Structure formats: structure tokens, C-alpha cells
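Feature request disguised as a bug report, sorry. It would help if multi-protein outputs had a clear separator. Right now it looks like this:
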Amino acid sequence: MEHYFSVFTDKANLLGATVVAVLGGVFGAHWQVFVLFFALNVVDFFYGWLKGKQTGTINSAKGAVGIMKKVSYWVVIAMAFGVAQVLIDFGTAIDAQLGFLHLIGWFTLGVYILNELTSIVENLVVLGYEVPEIFVRGLNAARKAVDAAGNKIIPKEENHEHS
């Protein structure tokens, strides 16, 4: 019996190491943040489904729209990181300092993580679960901090009217 347990744990360790290596290769050193975001996508979809079931508003079209919304988040995140890297490389070629653009991907991912958390909290409240007010205020404060930090790095453009 001990032999079977040893074989199982060896295979589980190998599988785990392979998953971590692939995630690290695809998402880089901070792969855990992307895994967290994916987990939040799944949790939000589940609680949205529960809310739809409880309120009688569940339907397959709404579910498909929800899935496409989540897929679209991933597309935007990939574009934010990818385009930033291309522009940074371009900046290097023309001797322009564009290294700060790598933050676009991280700010985008951060905003989406906060959106998912907010959506989960809203669904929990509709379902009748108690969510501590400090957590809700913390999410709002985090959103404001991320927006303010992003505005420091890449200021909002002022609208200039042309005469």
C-alpha cells in the first residue's frame, strides 16, 4: 500500500511541477496573479448563476454573454501586456524611454481583479449573504488607489477644443 501512495505522490508532484512550469512560462514570474484572476472569473460566474437561479432570471443566452465577457477580459489583458511590450521594444529601437508602459498590463489586470471582486460581493449581497462593510470600503479604496496611481503614470488627457 505504501508503494501505491508513493507512486501517487510522485505523479502528483510531477503534475504539479509541470503545471507551475507551464504557468510560469506563459505568464511569467507573477503567474499566481493570473491564476487568482481566473479563479475570480469562475467564482463570479458561479455566484452570478446562483443569483440568476434565485431571482428567476437565469437563461443560456445570459450565461453565454457572461462567458464572452470573461473571455473578453482576457483578450484585453493580453493586448495590454502585448502592446506594451511591443511599444517598449519599439522605444528601445528608436531610443525613446517607454519602459513605464509595462505598467499598463498590470493596471488593466488590477482593475479587472477589483471588478470581479466587486461583482462577487454584489452577487453575495443579492443572495442574502453578509459581506463586511470594511471589505466593501476596502475594495472602493483599492479602486481609487489604482486609478490614482495609473493617472500618475499615464495622466488623463485634457480635452482641447479646436477653434
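(second protein starts here, but nothing in the output says so)
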Amino acid sequence: MDRAQKEKLVEELGQIFESSGVVVVSRYEGLTVAEMQDLRARARGAEASVRVAKNRLAKIALDGTPCESIASLLDGMTVLTYSEDPVAAAKVVEDFAKDNKKFEILGGNMGGTALDRAGVEAVSKMPSREELIASIVGCIGAPASNIAGAIGAPASNIASILSTIEEKAA
């Protein structure tokens, strides 16, 4: 890899560290290619990404970014899992770690806050952005449906009373 390629890689990594809601650092030593492909597929499904980069270049890219605290975790065979959604990448690595004992989560960073192993686990248990939006919409929509039901109820009651009277008259 020549100097221009390294500079381009450092720039790409810097953009990742700047724009990601969460970055999780894990050790993948001992995983097969098929297992890494499985991790990448799970990440794609959750709108997250997986990146293996040279630790030295990643440390250079981290300088001055909100994720700067993860520099100490970059030692050995590390993989970065990241997403714009502050929960997606953490959920992906936690699920993958349950199935693969060789995969070790070291820590991460969420919005400028350093996360240790327990922090990544706690973030993975939080509801995702989509789940939060759905629950908020449900809370907003429930009173409106109750009001519509209350307004429509007297009319349906009157209609049923009228039909009962009509049946008795006939």
C-alpha cells in the first residue's frame, strides 16, 4: 500500500468516525472467512457496516474525532463495526458474539462517550431508532382513535336502537 492509498484510507476512516452514531471495536482472531462474511451480512441487514483496517492508520484517523477514546482498544486483530443508528452496530456485534466464542467485543464509542464491554452490551439492549419512532407514533395515535371511537359511538347506538324499534314494529 503506497502513501496515497494510506492517506485515502485515513480520510475514509476519519469520515466514518465523525459520522457514526456508534463504533464498536472487537477482536476477530480465529474467525473463519465464512464467519466474517456472516458478520458482514448481519451488519448489512441492520444497516451497519464492518471494517477491518490497520490499527496504526485507524489511530491516525481517530485523532481529533469524537471517537478518539477507542484508540487504546486498537491492538491486535481488530474489526470496527459502525452505524449511524446509535444502537444497530452494538446489537449486531452482541448477537454475533453469542454465536461465536472467538469473537471478543473490546469496547466502543457512542456520540463521543467511551464504552467498555458492559457499555456496548447496555447499548445493544436499548430500542433502535425505528422501534422508538413506532412507539411514539403509537402513543400519539392512540388518543385520536379513542376520540374517534367516542364520537362515533352515540351514532352507532342510535342506529341500533332505531333498528330494534323497527324490528318490533314489523
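Even a blank line would do. Unrelated, but nice: Residues 129-169 form the longest helix (41 residues).
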